[in-house]
Amino acid sequence: MLLTLILIGLYLSHSSKSSSSFPSSLMASRSLSHPEPNQVLFEESSCVRKVILNRPHKLNSLTYEMISQILRNLEVYEKDPMVKLLILKGQGKAFCAGGDVVGMVLSINEGHWSFGASFYKKQLTLDYLLATSTKPLVSLINGIVMGGGAGLSMNSMFRVVTENTVFAMPEGQIGFFPDVGASYFLSRLPGYFGEYLGLTGARLDGKEMLACGLATHFVLSKDLLLLENALSEVASSDASTISRVISGFSSKISLKKESAYRRLETINKCFSRRTVEEILSMLENEAANGDNKWIIQAISSMKSASPTSLKIFLKLIREGRTKELKDCLIQDYTIACHMFQRTFNPDFIEGSRAKLFEKGKQPKWEPSKLELVRDDFVNQYFEKVDDADWEYLQLPARPNLAKTWESKL
Prior knowledge:
With 409 residues, the protein is an alpha/beta fold. It has a single domain (2-380), classed as 2-enoyl-CoA Hydratase, Chain A, domain 1. It has helices at residues 2-8, 24-32, 64-79, 101-109, 113-131, 148-153, 182-185, 193-200, 206-212, 224-231, 239-247, 264-271, 276-287, 293-304, 307-320, 325-341, 347-357, 375-380, and strands at 40-45, 48-53, 85-90, 94-96, 137-141, 144-146, 158-161, 166-168, 204-205, 217-218. α4 packs antiparallel against α5 and α4 (101-109) crosses α17 (347-357). The relative contact order is 0.16. Keywords: Hydrolase, Signal.
């Protein structure tokens, strides 16, 4: 159930010229839809500015208008010397479950792949500007965070999670790939834990996020408003000052016995292998050794995902270890545009049709098996898009502020 809920609000982009059929009622509802008011709220408090995602009924999934509004306000905040700190949070049960995939897929399916590219370009630009913001950014992540939500928050200076937080990057299940800079922030986790998260779409709770380094602080949800009020009084951009304020509300953690992070040695053994096929083979060998519930789940998830998506992500994260965030986002854009244009296969549209529109059907992937996805086929996604009007993603020159992703245990 949770994965289905996650996928409905997930951000992605994608797919096939061999057309997939979408219900006519959905196509009609799109043409009759009207922009929602107040999708993002902006609040001011002394030297602090708050950005509040306000689509709780849609798990705060990002729309083009939301991204545009945040970009406009972020530019104002960065130029204002009175602003010392930014806070980003979501209303309701989710921080942000990703981008508005349904609207994007319907547009792409009608032939407007350039809309997907335009949306995605703006989203990646926002992710980059938030990551390199001249003002310290505190992301209060209370609830679901995945896809585009991870892109907004995982590169912020302070990443505060709670007992309600659920993180995942299950894009491979709909024929996409863990994007929005995931090859940067997941590759910097201990060992090969990032490969495990990206290839399996495994969920983490807030304590596991702190343990592996995806989060910087763990605060109980009952104390979150108190923390927010305390941060609203901050009059400095000094990182150590802000960290002390957050630490004053932080709680110690202990991982559940069944946490996958407690199996890091086995994860490293399996997910350090060179190919997806070798990783799966190692997992199947380990499954015979007992304590294997999490391994069985990992195998099942990988076998149900798009084979092409798995191979694209493994190449991405391996290369991402030595790249800057900017370069990882540029590469994400190139791969996504190929998927939007449906240059090489229809997996994104097919996966979205089966998982999002027909709810729970198994997609028909092309190619259908890992061994049929050759290296030269994967490499094509990393090359320039063959379109006269297409350009590589252009991001402004800004200092890439150092972030730390390290275990807190």
